[in-house]
Design brief:
Elements lengths: L2 H18 L8 E5 L5 H9 L4 E4 L2 H8 L9 E4 L8 H7 L2 E5 L2 H14 L3 E6 L16 H8 L5 E7 L12 H17 L5 E3 L6 H6 L4 E4 L1 H4 L8
Parallel strand pairs: 1-2, 1-8, 2-3, 3-4, 4-5, 5-6, 6-7
Bound molecules: pyridoxal-5'-phosphate (PLP).
Amino acid sequence: MTIEANLNQLRDQIALACRRANRSETEVALMAVSKVHPVEALLEAYAAGQRLFGENRVQEFQEKSASLGGQSDLEMHLIGPLQSNKTAKAAELFAAVDTVDSLKIAQRLDAAAKALGKKLPVLIEVKLSHEESKHGIAPEELTRLLAAMQGLEHVVPHGLMTVPPWSEDAEVARPYFQRLRELRDEAQRTCSTVVELSMGMSNDFAVAIEEGSTCVRVGTALFGKRLYPAP
Ligand SMILES: *Cc1c(COP(=O)(O)O)cnc(C)c1O
């Protein structure tokens, strides 16, 4: 299967999941997760019409972006953990940072975005599973973080993001998606810009769409298996 064929199949599957959930296809964005794959794969998806992408590491995208140029409408988000010493680079390279998980990171991104003269949309990553390897803030801390972020003028919280525990069985992820949606609904009452729900990956995006996802992040089903695990 080519990347273009995979993309078409994914769009069909997303449309089907939307119909099942009684939602409009226009409510659900498909993010192509190009981490670990070469820039050629990214460009192939771009040529097939894909515009929204996600990369996990600042350094990796910095290297890839040297091979990009003419794709001014390509929208790249950071979807991997961000260390505070990389915030300035991240604010410069990415259209959005979807993994904000502390006030410190938000403040540093705000300062960097201010220096660049731009507003940076961000998502708050929420850790709903107890796995050591997962990132994000605890759900109990969300209200306080969003309140503190109201004082920041250059980062705008657009929504929430989560990565549930991986399972063969997509149903295992459903309660995590439901929980993120509840948190989003609560947060929206005091912070009206919090609307997006970035949830769902290759094996569980249909369930995520049923539970209200507005952005599914798909790597494997689009680009094939990664040759080594992403950090
Ligand atoms: C790698 C990754 C994805 C894509 O995962 P697949 O299972 O390959 O679709 C989505 N979101 C995040 C945060 C990732 O790190």
